[in-house]
Every structure is written in structure tokens, then in C-alpha cells.
Structures
1.
Amino acid sequence: MHLVDVTASHAKDIQRELAATPVHFIKVYTLGNSRVVYKKKHGFSEIVISNKLRGITDKEVDFVVLMV
């Protein structure tokens, strides 16, 4: 499995999110067909993994938590 940083491809969406919310850091990755969004807010972090074609596996969750 490989996380590929695609943050630059989502620059407009990220700028909008940063301006409208208390989030101060956003990274977007792909993991095969899955999209991973990593956000940092003051005091905590959030990871969202989504895939429109299938469910997310425990193996993917463990890998993302380890790598991010």
C-alpha cells in the first residue's frame, strides 16, 4: 500500500476549508481507490478515509494511522 499526496490537486477546496473552519492544516492522499483526508485543528487531529466503491478495511485503517 502507498499513500500518494494529492493535496495540490485540491488546492481550491483546501483554501475554502481553511478559511471557513478552525482547521489549520489539511493534507489529501489517495490509497488506491480510497481517499484519505488528514486535518489538524487546535488540540486534535482527524483522519477521514472514504471509498465510493467498497468498504474500508481494518488493514487500510491501521496503515493510514501508522503512516500519517
Note: Strands lie at 4-5, 25-31, 34-41, 44-50.
2.
Amino acid sequence: MIGQLGFMADALRKEASNDFGPKDKGQSRVVVVSAFIWSCFIAMAQSKQGKKPKLIAAFHAVNQRERMVPQLPAHSFGNFYRKATATSPVEIEKDYGFLVSEIRNGIMEINAEYGKKLQEDDGYLELVKKGDGC
């Protein structure tokens, strides 16, 4: 079963790289499989009869420890993650590469600058007010 999942992830990665071209570095398995799952939810919402959702969001947990400057030590206690968010309108046809790039962009927003905002006096409070605090 695990071998089949690895093969599926490799095929999804190849499909994503076809959409981005040779200049783009390969996508991670996590990103391509997440985009595949997200595309299944979008397809399900599009086929739904009656009232359809207008927007579908994908949320992804991102380890904040290694993205801060300076990095938190590996032996630090507790969980420290942020949620990366990607959204797509349901009614618009999106190709697989678009979904991969939306997830990747959401994850890339969790960077050192984002970590600095968290460390400011009211940084975390402001993120919670915006709905971005986990």
C-alpha cells in the first residue's frame, strides 16, 4: 500500500511539474498530494445538487520552528505551528498546477518575516484578530 502511495505521489509531482515547466524546482509530496485531495473536494462541490459552496479553502499545518530567525532549538518544548491557507472559487475550473501553486504559496507565506510579526508586542494578538491565529 505504501509503495502505491509513493508511486501516486510521484505521478502527481510529474503532472505538477508539467504545469510549471522545467525552471521550477520539484514539488514536495505533501504539496502535490494535498492539491490532489483538494481537487477531489472541489470536484465533489461542483457535482453537488442544490446550494453549492462559493469558495473552498485548504488549510495546511506548517512547522514554524525552522522558519524563524534565529531558529528555535530542536529540543524546545511544545508545538509551534501556523496554518497555511489556500482558497479557490468552486465554480471556476482550475487546473492541477494552479492548486499546487496556491498551496505552495500559502506555505511560503509562513517565513522569517511572519515569525518576526509573531514576536512583536501584539503580533500574535493581531494575527488572531485577523483570523490567522491557530
Note: Residues 2-20 form the longest helix (19 residues).
3.
Amino acid sequence: MAGQIRMTPAELRDRAKKYGHSAREIDQILNNLKNLQEQLRGEWEGQAFARFDDQFNQLKPKVVQFSDLLDAIQNQLEKQRLLSKITTENYRKILALTNKSILKKCRRAVQLSAWLFLKKEITQHAQN
């Protein structure tokens, strides 16, 4: 079953930007924590810090992965926005062409009806 998007391309763009902005915020937080970790390294020695440092180093790749995932979501939303925009524009063009075609057919039908009506009137008038 096909999904439905209940947002305009502009709304999709805004949401995509929020994901990208969030990824940048996470990157900045991680950089701040790395700097703090370096500062602690100079001020705290021993096994307790070594364990703490190991935990921090194990966590870093997960935070980077999360930031990368947010970037990937941003890219997917942006691609969907472009597809939605193209689809909407194409739909409008098709609708405009269809409406023109329908109008032409209606004009022809009206012209034909008028011609048939006049022909009938002329025939009846000629018989009287």
C-alpha cells in the first residue's frame, strides 16, 4: 500500500532542516565532551579515570552513528521533498492539460449541439 504525505514540500524541507540542525548540535555536544575529556585527562589520574575514559571512548562511535543517522534522515526527507514537488508540479501540468482538453471537447460538443439545433430548425422552417 502506498503511503500518503500530508505535508507540503516546504514543510518537508523544514523538517529535513531540523534533522540536519539536530545532527550538528549532537556533533557540537560530542566535541565539547571530547574537550572536557581531554581536560579531565590532565587533571585525573589512575584506574578510575582509565575506566571512565574507556566508557567515554566506547560511547563516542554510537553518538557519531546517531548524528550520521540524523543526516541520513535529512537526506531522505530532502529527496522525498523533491519527489513530492516534482509530482505535484507534474500533476498540476497534467490537470491543466486535461482541463484544456475537456474544455475543447465541451466547446466542440456545444458547437455540434448548436449546429444540430440550427439544422433541425432550418429543416422544420423549410417544411412549413
Note: The chain is about 90% helix and 0% strand.
4.
Amino acid sequence: MNGNHERGALQPKVFEAEIVDDEPVSGDNRSVLGRWWNAPGAAHLRAVAAYRFRKLPRDFLRLAWFVLRGHGRWMAKAWTWATYGDLRSDARRARVSGDAEARRRAQELIRADAKARWGRLAIVLHRVVVVAAVVAPVGLVLWCVDSWMTRADMWPWLAQLLDLIGTAWEVLKTVASALLLIGPVGWVVAAAWEGRDKEPGATWLTRPDRDDADSWIDERMVSKALGHLGIAPLNAFFKNGGELLYSVPARRDGNGTFVQVRLPLGTTADMVADRRDKLAANLGRAKLETWPTEGDEAGVLDLWVADKGALAGGTGDWPLQYDGQLDVFDGVPFGLTQRGMVVNAPLIEANWLIGGRPGQGKSAALRTLLLGAALDPTAELWIFVMGESPDFDPFGPRASRYRMGMDDAVAEAAVSALEDLSTEMERRGKVLGEQPGRPPKVSRKLADKPGLGLHPLVCAIDECHELFQHPKFGKRAAELAVRVIKRGRKYGIVLLLATQSPTKDSIPREVTRNVSCGVAFSVADQIANDGLLGTGKYRAGIRATDLRMKTDRGTCVAVGVTDATFDLIRAFYVPFEDEVDMVTPVVERALAILREHGREIENSGRAAIQATPVDPLTDVAAVMHGERRVPTRVVLARLAEHNPAEYERWTFSDLKAALARHGFGPRKSGGVQVVRAEDVSAALSLRDGRE
């Protein structure tokens, strides 16, 4: 090589480096402290500590004032005790009122109390003297013996006694030294506690400068607000130093704060609800943002307070606005609760009554429910609008029945639909009875079988007050609506009613009493409120009268929609206005979903199984139960039990007319109209022979 390297050959090179282990060092071990330091909990603790450090001078001065005031209160109490201040105040009141007897009793009590007090003091002094007279000589003798003799020269028992006394003395000195250190601290703490603010809910750990101070609600604020409502039992309770019991302390609940309070004796939740406007003012909230209601008991107050301005925001788009289909058995997205949670409103096994003043969102809410039902390919829609309103025109292609108008023909069509629903209930009941296991109600599995005709059937009537007040069809419509509401839920039949005139005359009381879901937008008075939400709701503090016209448009008070006693719901809004139509695209998507599942509107589940024709003669024979003579009133009762949908409204005239068509009628026996079994059997034989 001659000291020269060949071209292209690799040459060795020495690197300066540090020898390390083969196994890498875990980054987790190095960052545990850092992760803890940056954790949200640690950051919160640091923020609280920093805030308290900044406020330390103010807190120290406040505590010092509490200590001084506590000593002052102790001195005042001692002076009152020493001078019989409470009894003397009674005597002064009696003197001012001119009640000589009360004044005499108060003075006698002062003398008796003084005598008893000095008597107790004499007893204590006597016992101290007796104990000292016994213990002092014994102690002196033991001290002298211990000073003059060594323990070795004493009797063993005496030496042990002196050792025990010495040990006890050392323990006593140690305890006394500790008390000299702890005692002053305890004294100061007790004085600060005595001198604290005693007005309702007062505290000293406050943070008034936090960013969300306006929204902050705690037990202190609630107690103070309740203490200034002007309710006599509450005033007396706080005046005597009482402190409210919070069974549920203030906690975040959606877009607000929830507390549950056990009210003192003599106070009910209704009393607080009656002063809701004053309570809202005391809490620094709008009336709409403050909801006091009765809890599980009359003396338990459930209070939900919204964050400031939380209810002013919109709800955003309807969740199914642009995509998706729906199963009505799972409910329909209806709106946002006051807590900011999406409400999945029930349709199956539910009936709805929606109302409010014009322009507040009633029809839009009904439209949202129908849009949800339309997106279920198994659902059938019947829609009747008792007025000249195009609000539901886009549903025409999706609905099996759609009528709109103010003439008698629309009212007649609506009543006919209710009649058909009543007949449909009978048919569905028989179909359910033929299924394996005799299921008690329609399920999703049964609804998916087109041949059974147990699909969801949703019938909506807008401006239903026009129908119920119709001079010709109103009474019949009310009877049929109540029947469908009571019995249709387990057959997959849903009735949706909407009105802007919820009065005792326009809405049958049985409708309000039996609907599952009541929804009230802004209403004018208590009658309209309870007509939609149920009797007693206004008294219980559930009030749609507090919703402001126009300002709270789209916001409603709902009962039965969720498991809560009530909900304040901001309903989703699917626009259908001039130049803005978001309803039609959803309906078109619903039609596309319907086609994908091979279903048609014309026979969207109209079952091949038809209801058996009603045969009064056969039914009368069935309810005779083998008896020779049955009173007509018993026959009518048995017929109503046998087939309520057909015979529930029958009278003696109906029964007589039905029997007359077969050539006989009731006869009198023993002064009572009866139906004879031989007449029924003869009529059946004659008819069967003709057939």
C-alpha cells in the first residue's frame, strides 16, 4: 500500500460518543409530574390557590372583624343572661301593652329565675368546699410522707399510689401545656364562627369578580332570595337563625343550576311558586329563567335557574333536516330542554295536544312531529287542517288522507277519519288476539309485517277547536277523539291535536285529561294553561302564561314529553315561509325512503285482514249466557263489555231497533223489559234458514 490508501476503499473513523443502555428510557416516567401539573384538576387548584392568595388581605380583615364581632355578641349574651334581659323585655312589652297580668307573670319569672340561679350556685360552691375539705388533708399528708421518706421505706401500696399520682400529674401538665397552645386558636375560631354573617346563606369565601359571576348560583344566593320573598313562615324561620336543608345542593344541570330545598314548617312549594317573579328578581334572572316547582312532597322545592341569556339562543337545525330516517318507536327530535338536551318526543303509545296564541309556533311544532313520522317508511299519515292554511301542503304526497279548508266537507271528512280509526282499533285488536302469545300492544316487529296492517297510523288535526265546536259534527268528533285517545295507543294509532283556542268549551275536558303529552306555547290565562297542560298545573307553578308573546316564540312548556314533571322546550323549527321551504325536501326524502322499502302511499299498510262485520243479533245471543230472560239494561251492559267500540253508546232505543229488524222486540216480565232467549233463537233460525 506504501502508506497510500487505495481510491474508493472505506477508511475507519473514530467517533467521540457516550455509551448508553440498550433499553430506551420511558418518556412516561419523566413526564408524570408534568402531566399532573398540566391536568385540569391541578390547574383548577392552582387557580383557586392563586385567587385566594390575592384576596388574602381582604379575607384576613374579614375574619378579624368576625372575631371582634363574635366577642361583642358573647358579651351581649352574657349581659342578657346576667340581667335577665329576655324576661325583662317580656315585662316591658306587657307594660307598654297595658297587660298587668302578663307583667306580673314576667316579674315573678324574673324572681324565680334569680332564686333558682343563686340556689344552683350555692349548691356548686357547697360541693366544692366539701370536696376541698376531704381532698386537701389527704393531699397534705401524702405530700409530707413523700417529702420525708424514700419510696423504699414506704409500704409497697403507698409507693405505687404515689407513683400513680406522679404520673397523673405529669399527664395533666402535658395536657395543660397543649391546651395553652390549642385553646387560644379554638377560642379565635369559635369567636369567628359566632361573629360570622348570619343572614340567609351568608358566607365569606366569595368570588364576585369571576367571568361568569352573573350566572353563578349557589345555596347562599338561593337562601337569601327565599328569605326576601315576604313569606311569613320563611321570615320567622330565618329570623330565628334557621338554615335551610338542601337535599340536592346547587349543581350544574344543562344550561343552568338545579337545587332541591326542604322548606321549613308552614311553607309549601306553591307559596314560592306564587312569588316566582319576586324570586327571579332576587336571583337576578328573568322570570322565564326561574322555575320553582313542587318536588316529591308539598314541602320540597325543586328550583331550576337558567344561566343568564341561555334561553335566548336558537336551537340550530333539526337533526333530521338534511339526512337520515326515523323509527317512530324511538321518538322524534322535538327540541331542546331548558337544560340544553335534545328531547326525543314519544309518538307511539302517546297522544298530543298542542296549543298557544297565534304565531307562537303551534303549527310548526305539529309539523316537526309529522316530519319525523314521515321519515318512518312504515308510518301512515292522515292530516286534517280545519282552516285555510298552507302550513301542511308539502305533506300531501306523503299523506294517505289530506284535507284542508273551513267548509263542512272537511269537518265531515275529519269525523269520518275518527270513525275509521275507531273501526281500525277494533280490527287491530282482533289481529293482535290472533298472534302467537296474544301480545298486548303493537311492537316494532309486528309493525314491520305489512300483511298484518299494524303499522303506525298518525292522525293530525290542526285547529281542532273548529272541529270540536262544529254545530253538526262537534259532539260526535269529541266522543270519537276521546275514544281514540283512551284506547288507540296500544294499537299503534296516534292522535295529534293542535289549537290556538284552548278553552273549556273548545277542547273537551276528557281530551285534556287523557292525552299523554300536553304542549303549551304562550297562552293568555290560567284557563288556557290548564286546558292544555292539565288541571292544577298553573297552581303547581307550571305556567305557559309567563312566556312572552313574540319574544318567546318557539318556546313551550311541555308535560308528559319526558320523565320530568315538566320541561321548558325550545322547539326545533323547520322553515316553511316565503322563499324558504325546508319542509318539502324532507318530505321528498321521505317519499324516496318509502320507495326504497317497496311501499306505496295508496295501500301503505291497508291490511288484507278486514274487520268482521258487526252482527247485533249474534252478539245478543252470545251475551244471553244461556239464561231464559235477561233484562234489557243487563243486555246493554254486556254488549258494551263484549264490543265497546260498537255498543258503548247504545241505548234501549238502539237495542229495540236492532231486534225489530228481525221481527221481535223486548217483552215485559215482572214489570221489567227483558229479552227472551227463545225469541233470539227463533230469529237466528229464521235468518239462517233464509240464507
Note: The CA atoms of residues 210 and 313 lie 23 Å apart.
